[in-house]
Write a structure and sequence with these properties.
It is an enzyme of class 2 (transferase). The protein is α+β, with helices and mostly antiparallel strands and 890 residues long. The chain is built from 13 helices and 51 strands.
């Protein structure tokens, strides 16, 4: 072949008939192979030009014989076809593709065959010429196919022989490489196909903690220094979190730097944190034997968001010396420890006593730090001296004599007077009646009018009553410390008109002519108010009812209400016109006027607010501390109007001129607004002390706390309704030209009908140079995380910066009051925002909502939507709730 000599086996017995020529190989071990491949190179002469032949064919046969050992002899297996057929199978009849004749070059033929499945340890191959052919067998190659050793999916696979069929797949189980383990005991596998190729990989090994897979996933490498991997997963090593490091390779967790710690519940990927510093601006408001403690969050919260506070009480001797832990029981509202709010009320203290209160700020690493020997400076102290306590309840209120128009009352002094009684207050409330013309004519006290009298005696003759009417009477005592609680009310019925009236005069403080004048005024006012309300209600009823019906109809189909309260639609999120798409609220276009432009601030107050007589106001409970003083809940009883709940802001005594200007300025701002989604100013008290701002009372408090208290308690459509409330209020303010500058969920108030209203219109926000403090207001720091970048960088506050803040409020609402940017510091927030970071979508947040948030957070303020566009977008979502189905994090 190719002019090279080759050794070959040759036969050409064509001159004799009945040929039976055999060629058999030596014993061939197959090494467990189930399918054998045979390649044969041969030449064969053409029979066409061969003269005087007895027989001549151009084919020969190939056989194989299976056996477990080398047992062939010259006679075994027998040299006949039946023996091979019996134990084997005729492979094929091989025909020459290329034949040669006289004078031509010998053409070499190549044939490839496969046999199987093989079930024995080895085979013999046999070639037979039984037809008389000139055949030369030049080359025979016998082999099988296998898949070689390999590394894949962090596992090593050994040499694997292919299966018995061309289509066979032989499974091979891998062994995990060093520093890798099987997942749940299941090792990866590969499959060797009939051609000797690895295919169909299943499963994988995973690198142990401290190791990461290389790019080709053939080995696990140790994490580099200052990198770690804490989990048994095929994840890359991560750089050590903030305030931690790893000095060696293969770290599973990074060690906290000095002064930083991890809580037991912290994971390895969380940064190391530290205990908080002490609370700031701790102050107390003493009310007799109660104290209201208020403070602000620590300047450094340690990088965590699990801050809590605890209160410790100490009783001291005069001058606040020799203080020991309080032993007398006191009432702490809401509690002494585990506080998440920056306020606690302490009641039932001793009168004229000296107390020291320690407010301690803690987080989850405080105990870890203490256990390691560190002593955190995380508490602040305030000294408190209590005043005289109010008297206890008056005892044994009784009637000693009664007529048709009067009643003589007597009572016993309180069991605990706690000082000197200045006087007693007697309140008479008719049980039932109505104002009639007869009341106006005869000057008798109508049964629907409450009446209060005061006396220094322990008895009182109350006159001017109606015959045969039932009255509820209660009495309380007053000392320098204030009023004590009312006595248990008693019911007294006057006699009929035929009963003679006693000759002695009543001790009432109000004469009958005064009652007549008061009654006439009240009656006229009530009639006028009723007529006005009826006319306005009839005009408005149809439009409002239509809007509410349309919305509530779609709402009922969903059958989803607030789980904790099971509110009905009409009383849940969207009462009245607050969620109607074509709101019936129409306001005349007004422009906001800055009160500081007035030379005389009092003129702005008189122009934009309504003065209220302090006697119309009844303070019932201190509910908090505001920027200027206490915030109270009370009742407002205007002449000819129903008594209503109100919130009362008071200006604390000892105020500075600037504090007074700021206090009155806030009232002047609020007085310019009139919108159902903006907090309503009822009026001010400036002609007596203390100065007061009276606003409508919002029963459910701030939106952020309300959402956290009802986590996952609303449907998406209800949350959109909340956002629509806020956007409508901000559109109104923006249209007036007012820039809020502190829009956040904490400054949105929620009333009993769950209508949201924008509040907090303080004027005293001053930007500071300290970038970590962001900007602050007198009396309270305003976090940077709600502020637009141009505002904290260039001090540019516009309606567009309010839109940025509104986007943060959207995020707060959809995350149920979660803290924006979590535990990041203000400086980190500023850097992140400047580099393009934006808050991710909260869990289950609709995609369309998160897109709107991102629009509000455009870096270029001119590209942010206007509040009018935001209201329109939310209206579309409410009209077509299908937009809300696609989730941003799906």
């Amino acid at each position: 072949e190719n002019q090279n000599e080759r050794r070959m086996h040759y036969v050409c017995q064509i001159t004799q008939a009945n040929q039976n020529n055999w060629l058999r190989t030596e014993y061939i071990k197959v090494d467990g192979a189930r399918r054998i491949y045979i390649e044969v190179r041969f030449t064969i002469r053409s029979c066409e030009d061969v003269p005087n032949v007895a027989t001549c064919k151009e084919t020969f046969n190939l056989y194989y014989y299976e056996t477990d050992r080398d047992e062939a002899t010259t006679t075994f297996p027998p040299w006949r076809e039946g023996a091979y057929i019996k134990v084997g199978t005729l492979v094929d009849t091989i025909a020459a593709d290329q034949r040669f004749g006289p004078g031509s070059d010998k053409e070499v033929n190549f044939e490839k065959r496969n046999i199987g499945p093989i079930s024995k340890n080895g085979i013999y191959l046999a070639f037979r010429d039984d037809t008389g052919a000139c055949v030369a067998i030049m080359h025979v190659k016998v082999y099988y196919k296998y898949c070689g050793e390999t590394l894949m999916n962090l596992a090593s696979f050994s040499r694997t022989v292919s299966g018995p069929q061309i289509t066979s797949l032989v499974e091979a189980r891998g062994s995990c490489v060093r520093n890798a383990v099987a997942v749940n005991g299941r090792y990866p596998s590969l499959h060797c196909d009939g051609e000797g190729n690895w295919t169909v990989p299943t499963g994988t090994c995973v690198c142990t903690a401290g190791y990461e897979p290389n790019f080709s996933r053939t080995q696990c490498k140790a994490c580099a220094r200052n990198h770690y991997k804490s989990k048994v997963k095929n994840l890359p090593c991560q750089r050590c979190p903030a305030y931690s490091s790893a000095s060696n390779q293969g770290a599973t967790v990074c060690d906290c730097m000095n002064g930083y710690f991890r809580a037991p519940s912290d994971t390895a990927d969380q940064p190391c944190t530290k205990p908080p510093t002490k609370v700031v601006n701790l102050y107390s408001v003493v009310n007799q034997t109660s104290v209201n403690l208020n403070w602000e969050r620590p300047l450094n919260e340690g990088g965590r968001d699990d801050l809590t506070y605890s209160v410790q009480c100490y009783r001291c001797q005069s001058g606040f010396v020799a203080c020991v832990a309080c032993s007398e029981p006191a009432d702490y509202q809401p509690r002494m420890s585990g506080l998440t709010t920056t306020q606690v009320f302490v009641h039932n203290l001793r009168s004229y006593a000296f107390y020291r209160f320690k407010i301690t700020a803690t987080n989850a690493v405080t105990n870890v730090a203490v256990a390691s020997g560190e002593q955190p400076h995380n508490y602040a102290i305030v000294n408190v001296e209590t005043n005289q306590a109010a008297p206890s309840a008056v005892l044994n209120v009784r009637s000693s004599e009664a007529g048709s128009t009067y009643v003589m009352l007597r009572w016993d002094a309180p069991s605990s007077i706690n000082g000197n009684i200045l006087d007693y207050e007697v309140t008479v409330n008719p049980s039932r009646s109505q104002i009639t013309l007869q009341h106006l004519a005869n000057g008798k006290l109508p049964a629907s009018v409450s009446r209060t009298n005061r006396t220094t005696n322990q008895y009182l003759n109350v006159g001017g009553l109606e015959p045969t009417k039932e009255y509820s009477i209660k009495v309380r005592a007053r000392t320098m410390a204030g009023f004590g609680p009312y006595s248990q009310p008693i019911k007294i019925r006057t006699l009929d008109g035929t009963t003679s009236t006693p000759t002695h005069q009543t001790n009432s403080h109000t004469s009958d002519p005064d009652i007549l004048h008061l009654t006439i005024a009240i009656g006229a006012g009530v009639i006028l108010v009723i007529a006005t309300v009826v006319i306005a209600a009839n005009r408005q009823r149809h439009t409002d009812s239509l809007h509410v019906y349309r919305y509530c109809s779609s709402f009922r189909k969903r059958r989803k209400t607030v789980k904790s309260k099971k509110l009905k639609c009409e009383k849940s999120l969207f009462n009245g016109t607050a969620v109607t798409f074509n709101s019936s609220f129409q306001s005349n276009h007004k422009t906001y006027i800055d009160p500081t432009t007035y030379e005389d601030p009092q003129r702005a107050v008189s122009e934009f607010t309504k003065e209220i007589d302090a006697s119309f106001i009844k303070i019932e409970q201190v509910i908090g501390a505001g920027e200027f003083g206490e915030v109270c809940r009370g009742r407002l009883q205007m002449t000819n109007k129903n008594e209503t709940d109100v919130a009362i802001k008071t200006l604390k005594s000892g105020y500075s001129t600037q504090q007074k200007l700021d206090f009155l300025g806030e009232a002047s701002i609020m007085g310019q607004f009139d919108h159902p989604n903006v907090i309503r100013l009822e009026g001010v008290v400036t002609k007596s002390r203390p100065l007061m701002i009276i606003t409508e009372f919002m029963e459910n408090g701030s939106l952020d706390v309300f959402l956290r208290n009802h986590d996952n308690g609303f449907t998406v459509i209800q949350l959109v309704g909340i956002l629509r409330n806020i956007a409508a209020g901000m559109k109104y303010l923006s249209d007036m030209g007012y820039v809020h500058r502190d829009l956040a969920a904490r400054n949105i108030l929620v009333n009993a009908q769950l209508i949201c209203k924008v509040s907090d219109f303080g004027m005293s926000r001053v930007l500071e140079e300290d970038s970590d403090a962001a900007y602050t207001a007198r009396g309270g720091k305003i976090p940077i995380r709600w502020t637009a970048p141009e505002a904290f960088t260039y001090r540019k506050f516009t309606s567009a910066s309010d839109v940025w803040s509104y986007g943060i409020v959207m995020w707060e609402v959809m995350s149920y009051g979660e803290r924006p940017y979590w535990g990041m510091s203000n400086r980190d927030v500023m850097n992140a925002v400047e580099t393009g970071y934006r808050l991710p979508a909260p869990m289950d947040c609709p995609q369309v909502q998160h897109r709107l948030m991102l629009e509000c957070w455009k870096k270029d303020r001119n590209q942010r939507p206007k509040f009018g566009q935001i209201v329109s977008s939310l209206d579309k979502m409410l009209r077509d709730p299908s937009q809300l189905k696609a989730k941003a994090n799906d």
